[in-house]
Amino acid sequence: xxxxxxxxxxxxxxxxxxxxxxxxxxxxxxxxxxxxxxxxxxxxxxxxxxxxxxxxxxxxxxxxxxxxxxxxxxxxxxxxxxxxxxxxxxxxxxxxxxxxxxxxxxxxxxxxxxxxxxxxxxxxxxxxxxxxxxxxxxxxxxxxxxxxxxxxxxxxxxxxxxxxxxxxxxxxxxxxxxxxxxxxxxxxxxxxxxxxxxxxxxxxxxxxxxxxxxxxxxxxxxxxxxxxxxxxxxxxxxxxxxxxxxxxxxxxxxxxxxxxxxxxxxxxxxxxxxxxxxxxxxxxxxxxxxxxxxxxxxxxxxxxxxxxxxxxxxxxxxxxxxxxxxxxxxxxxxxxx
Amino acid sequence: xxxxxxxxxxxxxxxxxxxxxxxxxxxxxxxxxxxxxxxxxxxxxxxxxxxxxxxxxxxxxxxxxxxxxxxxxxxxxxxxxxxxxxxxxxxxxxxxxxxxxxxxxxxxxxxxxxxxxxxxxxxxxxxxxxxxxxxxxxxxxxxxxxxxxxxxxxxxxxxxxxxxxxxxxxxxxxxxxxxxxxxxxxxxxxxxxxxxxxxxxxxxxxxxxxxxxxxxxxxxxxxxxxxxxxxxxxxxxxxxxxxxxxxxxxxxxxxxxxxxxxxxxxxxxxxxxxxxxxxxxxxxxxxxxxxxxxxxxxxxxxxxxxxxxxxxxxxxxxxxxxxxxxxxxxxxxxxxxxxxxxxxxxxxxxxxxxxxxxxxxxxxxxxxxxxxxxxxxxxxxxxxxxx
Lengths: 337, 387
Fold this sequence. Notes:
Chain B: Keywords: Amino-acid transport, Signal, Transport. Chain B: InterPro entries: BCAA_transport, Leu-bd, Peripla_BP_I. The complex is a heterodimer of chains A (about 325) and B (about 375). Chain A has helices spanning about 5, 20-45, 45-70, 80-95, 100-125, 130-150, 150-155, 175-195, 200-210, 210-215, 220-250, 260-270, 280-290, 300-315; strands at about 160, 165, 170, 250. Chain A is an all-alpha fold and about 325 residues long. Chain A has a two-stranded antiparallel sheet with strand order 1-4. Chain A has a two-stranded antiparallel sheet with strand order 2-3. In chain A, a hairpin with a 2-residue loop joins strand 2 and strand 3. Chain A starts with a helix and ends in a 23-residue tail after the last helix. Chain B is an alpha/beta fold. Chain B is built from 14 helices and 14 strands. Chain B has a seven-stranded mixed β-sheet. In chain B, helix 2 crosses helix 13 and helix 3 packs parallel to helix 4. The longest helix of chain B is centred in the first third of the chain and has 20 residues, at about 40-60. Classes of the chains: A mainly alpha (about 325), B alpha/beta (about 375).
């Protein structure tokens, strides 16, 4: 069985002509494109700053989800549960107990991590569709808890007045500063993801993704590694939830509902599941595409869906895999060779 | 895809965001509406009312010598999208005020930065929670207490039923109403013997109805809008609860009629008088209120025909007209001046209700606007007017 992680592109260049080679030029073009977009949004300001801020937050979520779904090849429809823990954790700790935002974010992360261990240990014994259904149930349960436990979460009324991110007397209130802050956090998340992917730990995850029996035969303790990937994904999701709370200043159950699952799955596949940069690229592209087609008015959703379909048809491995198209194909083995 | 293609794509994307700047001789009013998702029915009607009001104002020469323009965006009934569209209307469209729909969470999520920008918000929803945000928001939603009390008043004065069961959804408005339903019951000599919940997407309520019946309730106080009421009515009928009354929430006219056709006169609901009087304005006895209703219903019928719902759109119409009246009074569209002018309008008889905003009162409807209605021959009719 092939996996997302094992089929993803890697920066291996064989026989590329010229200084960078075609692969390098395409990759550079992509990087320039993102830098241009970011610069354009930063300079222009306005509501695209908000779109980009949300893209960064979703990016953090997707980078985490990629550990479990991309590198490890498992299915989880319930990571929104940990985003909810992060979001409500930050909101409650800041508003009710007066904790500084950064400390609240860290405490919420710890709570999400413990919850992931408690939930993941029995759940991750399941495989395939059963695991997907179990994690889906986790998301639904958390949603219902956030709606019904009004004394803690305020139900559908939501939590308002959540302070912005900041350290000590310094608060990040300017929209551009918020975007830079979020981008730094996302880049840090990507750096951690890249380092872990190519570590012994990451190779074990990718081995599990390729073949669980094969990985077990190599001595990899599969339950332990699956749980570790699940917990890492939960920590990222928790950070994303906390960031949403501090950036927007308000959260309610709908923020962490089923729509979050759908959106983040879309981002993951559009960007390239199993790749390091794919989740971030997917988050940015999938966030900006609806704005590109906003002028279509009531047909916005249809136009957006068509664009997504086009992307998935012409870039089935995700946008981050496009850089691999310039790579010369390996020679076909000759019969009898 | 080659590097050339990538660069071409980059240029195309960048060009898409470049919006030509043009001097506008219009006053733009923004509206964040849940045109898709769970709020689509109510917010669709809210948009109808706003569009009618804009046309009426422009037909009379606009505001401050300028044409009024409605800029509305779909928030898809989710807060994160509401944040985006509010920001878009502020930064790109340069709206001077908002007149937004009923998605409370969306309005709450945007309230902090709309407040910082000092823009007034006329809302279909309840007010945001923060005191500072409430100073800039004006709610055109009747307080939940009125909807509950009109039903209890009917039970007390017209029936022998003294035990009720509550069946409610957990929306912000529904949650508030449930608290009043529990707290106010004693005031009317009524006992709440069952307190059940449902989700909008639930497909069957037999279990909840069975519990309410087993608890000895003679009537169900249903709290929540949407088509769930039809399923509840069918459940009551199929369970053979022949004496159980269903007192539903304010709802869309088509849904009221459909539920009424299932339970007949056992389905009762609070209704603003304009919803019942769409075919007979004579039902509105106050001449001032009748004139306000006629000014709204005439263009509404001309545009959408006679079978439209008026409970939401009439209040949207009122909200927009009050906003423009405030702009005229303030002689400017500047946010603080308009906000202050809305507070000074005083008692205002509108098409959907009467309003009375002040610096300390930002929930405009202060008198119960509801009659108890039922469905008779496929039309809405007044059962009891306890106002």
